[in-house]
Amino acid sequence: TVVARHDAAVARVNRGGDDDEIPSWCGQGWLELWSVVLMDGLANSMIQLIVPDLGTAFFGGGIDPCVVDGEDSLACTNALRHFSSVLAAFGFASTVLAFVC
Question: Hey, CA dihedral for 35, 37, 41, 46, is it positive or negative?
Answer without folding.
Answer: positive
